[in-house]
TrEMBL record:
Protein name (record): DUF2339 domain-containing protein
UniProt-listed InterPro entries: DUF2339_TM
Keyword Plastid in annotation: no
Keywords (A to Z) from UniProt: Membrane, Transmembrane, Transmembrane helix
Phylogenetic classification of the source organism: unclassified sequences, metagenomes, ecological metagenomes
Segments traversing the membrane: 122-141, 147-166, 178-198, 204-223, 230-248, 254-272, 279-296, 302-328, 335-356
Listed Pfam families: DUF2339 (PF10101)
Length: 366
């Protein structure tokens, strides 16, 4: 039986074989001799083919990674409204573009929106706010008509708020958006209950009220961070800011309101430092300055030094809320961040002008 050697592995094969049984290379025709030059050429061709295959696989893997990142981005923004976390991931991925074979990239931007789910999400949030306002009006009406004593109102409010928090935690995995709205409503009800116990009914002293408000603020911040839930944080802040207006027809004492606002804003500062939630910062700033503006319009016997001190503290808190995230995490601010800084400064400038215009008009700048 005759044999012929493979030009690649140089092992003997049967004369009837077309391909080498050891390496798979094509065997030379009968009557030809293998030469070292042919061997090197064939090895080079096989090596080039393998390299091209590896490059093609790397390109496909990169494209798949881009598509997965885009899917995560759309899903995260749609469910939480926060894009800062995904932007940091995208920045990391962008560094890999230069290492992609042949620099090949492909845009995989896709709109993944469930249009049927959008109204459901907003109805859940609006419903939570409506429940909060309804409970506030009911408690105020019950107190005016002596249906429920002051202590009973506070107990009912705290119980309902805790029930909402437990329900939100229980349903978080099954109905994420609805559960976040329920949790935010519970936080706002707790704010309202403690504020009513301290500022309206005077059932608890100053130190206990502030301690409870701090606990509620920390709980709100913790839940928002845990759920990555911007809507929960916004709903809790809105509820905390509007409940003093619904619970009492007359404005409370200025120093109580300032302390209440500052505690709320400190919670916003913590959240804004850890998560660059611009909508939360904007809502909290407008609400805080708006509550102070009600005193300027309706109360003529204000302590101007106290009010100006409170305004300055609020301004400094929101200076931190718009800058600390970028300083600590070394992020470049966007135009929206610069816009928030400008809005904060503009409101802080305009309110003292209205406050001091009558008494110190000659000292005001043109």
């Amino acid at each position: 039986m005759d044999y012929r050697d493979c030009t690649i592995c140089e092992k003997p094969n049967l004369e009837s074989n077309t391909f080498c049984i050891y390496c798979g290379a094509e065997l030379p025709e009968l009557g030809t001799k293998s030469r070292s030059g042919d061997t090197e050429r064939i090895k080079k061709d096989i090596g080039t083919s393998s390299k091209d295959s590896i490059n093609a696989i790397q390109i496909e893997v990169y494209k798949l990674r881009k598509e997965v990142d885009e899917l995560r981005r759309n899903l995260h923004i749609f469910t939480t409204g926060d894009s800062s976390f995904i932007k940091s991931r995208s920045a990391t991925r962008s560094k890999q573009v230069s290492n992609t074979p042949h620099g090949q990239t492909r845009s995989t931007t896709r709109k993944i929106l469930d249009w049927e789910q959008i109204p459901g999400n907003w109805f859940a949030r609006i419903g939570g706010l409506a429940i909060l306002i309804g409970i506030a009006f009911f408690l105020a009406l019950a107190f005016d008509n002596h249906w429920i004593e002051a202590t009973g109102q506070i107990v009912i409010g705290i119980s309902v708020g805790l029930l909402f928090l437990v329900s939100g935690e229980y349903w978080q995995n099954q109905y994420r958006t609805w559960a976040q709205s329920v949790s935010g409503t519970g936080i706002a009800i707790l704010y309202a209950s403690i504020y009513a116990a301290f500022g309206i009914h005077e059932l608890i002293d100053t130190y206990l009220a502030f301690a409870l408000l701090i606990v509620i603020t920390l709980a709100s911040a913790g839940l928002s961070l845990r759920y990555h839930a911007l809507p929960l944080a916004v709903l809790a802040v809105i509820g905390g800011l509007v409940t003093p207006l619904f619970l009492n027809r007359d404005l409370p004492e200025l120093h109580l309101m300032l302390a209440y606002i500052l505690i709320l804003d400190l919670g916003v500062l913590v959240l804004a430092t850890l998560r660059n939630w611009r909508w939360l910062t904007l809502v909290a700033a407008i609400g805080s300055y708006g509550l102070i503006g009600t005193y300027i319009d309706h109360d003529e016997g204000l302590s101007i030094p106290l009010l100006q001190t409170g305004l300055s503290l609020i301004f400094l808190i929101f200076v931190g809320a718009t800058t600390l995230f970028h300083l600590i995490w070394r992020k470049v601010p966007e135009y929206t961040d610069l816009g928030l800084i400008t809005v904060n400064a503009a409101i802080y400038f305009s309110l003292p002008v209205g406050l001091l215009e009558e008494s110190y008009f000659a000292w005001l700048p043109l």
